[in-house]
Structure formats: C-alpha cells, structure tokens
Amino acid sequence: MSRPTGRVLTLLELLQSGGTRTIAELAERLGVDGRTVRRYVDHLIDLDVPVEAVRGRYGGYRLGPGHRLPPLMLGEDEAVAVLLGLVAGRRTGLTTATATAGETAAAKIRRVLPRPLAARVDAVLESLAFTEPAGESAAPDAGILLTLADAVRHRRPVAIRYTDREGRRGDRTLHPQGVVAHAGRWYVTGRDPGIGEDRTFRLDRVADARLLPGSFEAIEGPDPARRVLSGFATAPYRHEVTLRIRGTAEQIRTRLPASVASVTALPGTGSPSPAPEPADAREPDRSEASEASEASDGPPWLRVEVRAERLDWLPPVLAALDLPFVVERPDELRELVVALADRFARRARRS
What we know:
Blueprint: H1 3-16, H2 23-30, H3 34-46, E1 51-54, E2 60-63, H4 76-92, H5 99-112, H6 115-127, H7 142-154, E3 158-163, E4 169-182, E5 185-192, E6 197-202, E7 206-211, H8 224-234, E8 239-246, H9 249-253, E9 261-265, H10 286-295, E10 301-308, H11 314-321, E11 325-329, H12 331-349
Antiparallel strand pairs: 1-2, 3-4, 3-7, 4-5, 5-6, 8-10, 8-11, 9-10
C-alpha cells in the first residue's frame, strides 16, 4: 500500500470515529498540511464516501449519511467484538429473519482479518459453546423491525397484520412504545387505540407493518420491558394460582421472575390463617415452636399470583424458595405440594 493511500484510509478511520474533525486536527494526525488533507478528502468523495464540509469557527469535515455504507475501518479489538457479537446473536436468536445476513457479514470480517488474528479468533470460535436456548428462537423480518423502531422513535401509529396463537389473522392498529428482545424472541408493545388497552405482539407473527399518518402522545406507565414481562405474568392460562409467601420480593424473584409471577404487598404483616390440619397432626415440639416465634418477627407476607398451563413445576420451586407459604388456590396445587413433601420425607428416612 502506497503511503498516500494509507493516509487516505487513516483519514476515513478518523472520520468514522464520529463528530467533526478540524483540518488542523486531521493534518496533525496524518502528518501533512491542510492542503493535502483537502486533497485526501477529495479522494474519499471520488470513492462515493459521503464526506461533508462543516463551515464556521469549529468547522472541518465529518461523515454524512449516504446511500450505502462506506468502507469500514475497524481496529483489531473492534473487529473481534463485531464478529463475536454476530455469532452470539445468531446462536441466541437475536437476529432478523434474514439469517444469511449475519453469516455473510461475519464471513466478510473474517476474510479481511490479519492471519495471526484470524487464527486466534478461530480458536475462540472453536472452543466456544452455547447452552441450549429455553425455547425455539423466532426471528423477525428486518424490514418490519426497522419500521416498528421508526414508529417508536417518532411516535407514529402503525398498522400491522398479525397471526395470533390460534392461527387467526387480522389487521391491528398500534401506538408502539418499544421493541423488546426476551428469551430469544422479539416483541413490540404499545397501546391499541381501538380498545384503549396495552397490547404486546410477537414480531415473528407480524406479516406486515406500515406507518400511518399522524402521531400520538407518550404512553405513561412502566417501560416497555416491564410491560412485556407483566403481560406474560397476567396472560390467560389453564391454572390461576394464588399464594401467600413470607419473604422479600427479591427472594421470591430468584425463583419466580416477573415474567412468571406478580408479587404484591398484603395489608398488615401478620401471618395468614393456617390451612386446616388433619386430626392426627402432632403437637409441635419445642424447636418448631421456637422457629415459629422467630418467624413472627420476620418479613411481611406477600401475595404471589401465577398463571400456568401446568402445576407440576411449582412444588419444586416453592421448596427451593425455602420460605413460609400458604396455597390459597387451587386445591390441586396443595395436593401436589403435600405429595412432594411426602416423597421427600420417605426418601430422607431411607438408610
């Protein structure tokens, strides 16, 4: 590479770092005079790189928006960061439906890496393993994602064509508040102006999205991520579970996150009414009475509500919490808890 060509590429790298660079600053960094800087800028413009001249006391040059991406100049650390980000995004589902776009972008970066660095990156990729995702990842269409993000930024209504979980298709109007990535899936959340309620839609089920005329006022309330998580916790499911658990919200959230359960305070801090005990229940011994006395000074009781398709996973979760709890409903869960406790007791007695 000739020396002037190398300096032109260095100039491009400086401009890509952002902001406006004065001619004096560029001349000093490149080791040339101001006239040569202008000539290098002309070279970039001839290559269709959108360089803009900024007039005024603090004027100079900056990169402007162009009809295509200019050549990128990445340092070694930057190239490795981008490459690993592309790989991780593909494996965790945080990619668009055009999966080949991430693969081709990674291949382009990999191809231009210096050989020693490429070998080290290959070593990382060969030794890197990912745990299996919680569920099947569903990627959104890139065009739909960009349209919805633009609607969020400018508070524009958007019309979407959506297919729900039952396979029913329909057209919806949404005042989008935000786009949320959660557990390998993408969601858009906002207000449905037709019914005046908050709605959340999976982006992979959106077949089309287009901006509508007008704008809307900012939506007050929780941020988009909290809206999505609370929507999971309150969505209709086969079983509606109500518990009272004695502990802090932080303790409960370690096993029952916001996407699974809602946690609210109960009036007062006294212990709840105990469930009826069987007639042959023995009297508590001294150690149990002592534990009960100590528990009376502990944290308050909280109401925990869970909606679930199945109940069999809840008893082990409650056992892992290791906090006092009462099952208010349903009776089926109470029976499952008792059955689990009996199994634990039998296994503990085995020699």
